[in-house]
């Protein structure tokens, strides 16, 4: 075991020599000892982690403990709760942009570590990625939600099932106002019957929808609505960032 980890550490030092790593936030060089691959400890501390004072329904930060936010007071969702790891600002926002728009798949081990350190409640959960339309998936080359799901599934030893598919191509939610976001994704999803039959997911299993960002909740709600209508009784959401 010790020999194996020595080789791994030597391999990492060699790779660092060939391809020096720099912090995504401040550009400082990162050596073999850094816990995160692409984020230095100083920048890590500056991330707006959501650990206390959040809305227990939608995960919004800066909400007094034990109360729900104003928005949740006005709306009802089909999902029981959303949990987000950090607020969508600064380096947290940069991580998502790098992953989605600059093919930042090298950041996935760091995202996985964030998920691990957040000590998420994923016991006996089936993780369901929010699907992309096949066209957008093809253009991007990957679906970031699937990749986040796979990372978390390894860490928490849970199943991943692509239980949903996207019916039609919708405009990007980015840049749309709240009302337009709800309208844009309202009927965008349906059950992926093939995956459902193949994986035989029982309707009483806890389902956790996974996405990179929760803004108004329109996308998560559109997905949750389909799952609840199909008979799934316990649907939650987990998102990397809360806008
Ligand atoms: Zn840094
Ligand atoms: Zn809320």
What is the β-strand count?
9
Number of helices: 10
Strand order of the largest sheet: 3-9-8-4-5
Quaternary structure? single chain
Would you tell me the overall average pLDDT?
Answer: 91
The total number of structural domains is: 2
CATH class of the largest domain: Alpha Beta
Which small-molecule ligands are present, each listed once? zinc ion
CATH T-level fold name of the largest domain: Rossmann fold
Specify Rg, calculated over alpha carbons: 19 Å
Shape descriptor: globular
Unreliable stretches: none
Main pleated-sheet profile: 5 strands, parallel
Structural class: alpha/beta
State which percent range the strand residues make up. 15-25%
User: What is the name of the CATH architecture of the largest domain?
Assistant: 3-Layer(aba) Sandwich
Span from first to last CA? 43 Å
- Give the helix proportion (percent range): 25-40%
Order of helices and strands: HEEHHEHHEHHEEHEHEHE
Q: Which features characterize this protein?
A:
243 residues, 2 domains, five-stranded parallel beta sheet, two-stranded antiparallel sheet, 10 helices, 17% strand, globular, binds zinc ion
Topology:
Layout: H1 2-18, E1 21-22, E2 29-30, H2 41-46, H3 70-74, E3 82-87, H4 90-101, H5 108-117, E4 125-129, H6 134-140, H7 144-156, E5 159-160, E6 164-166, H8 178-185, E7 189-191, H9 193-199, E8 206-214, H10 218-229, E9 234-242
Parallel strand pairs: 3-9, 4-5, 4-8, 8-9
Antiparallel strand pairs: 1-2, 6-7
Bound molecules: zinc ion (ZN) (2 copies).
């Amino acid at each position: 075991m010790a020999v194996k980890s020595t080789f791994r550490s030597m391999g990492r030092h060699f790779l660092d020599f060939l391809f020096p790593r720099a912090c995504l936030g401040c550009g400082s060089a990162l050596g073999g000892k850094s816990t995160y691959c692409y984020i230095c400890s100083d920048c890590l501390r500056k991330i707006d982690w959501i650990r206390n004072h959040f809305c227990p329904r939608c995960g919004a930060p800066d909400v007094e403990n034990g109360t729900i936010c104003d928005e949740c007071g006005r709306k009802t969702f089909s999902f029981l709760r959303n949990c987000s790891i950090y607020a969508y600002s600064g380096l947290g926002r940069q991580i998502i942009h790098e992953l989605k728009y600059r093919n930042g798949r090298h950041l996935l081990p760091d995202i996985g570590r964030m998920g691990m350190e957040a000590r998420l409640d994923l016991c006996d959960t089936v993780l369901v990625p929010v699907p992309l339309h096949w066209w957008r998936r093809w253009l991007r080359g990957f679906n970031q939600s699937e990749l986040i799901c796979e990372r978390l599934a390894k860490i928490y030893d849970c199943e991943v099932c692509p239980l949903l598919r996207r019916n039609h191509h919708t405009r990007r939610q980015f840049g749309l106002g709240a009302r337009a976001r709800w309208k844009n994704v309202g009927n965008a999803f349906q059950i992926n019957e093939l995956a459902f039959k193949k994986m035989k997911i029982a309707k009483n299993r806890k389902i956790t929808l996974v996405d990179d960002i929760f803004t108004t909740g329109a996308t998560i709600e559109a997905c949750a609505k389909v799952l609840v209508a199909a008979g799934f009784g316990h649907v939650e959401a987990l998102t990397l960032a809360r806008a």
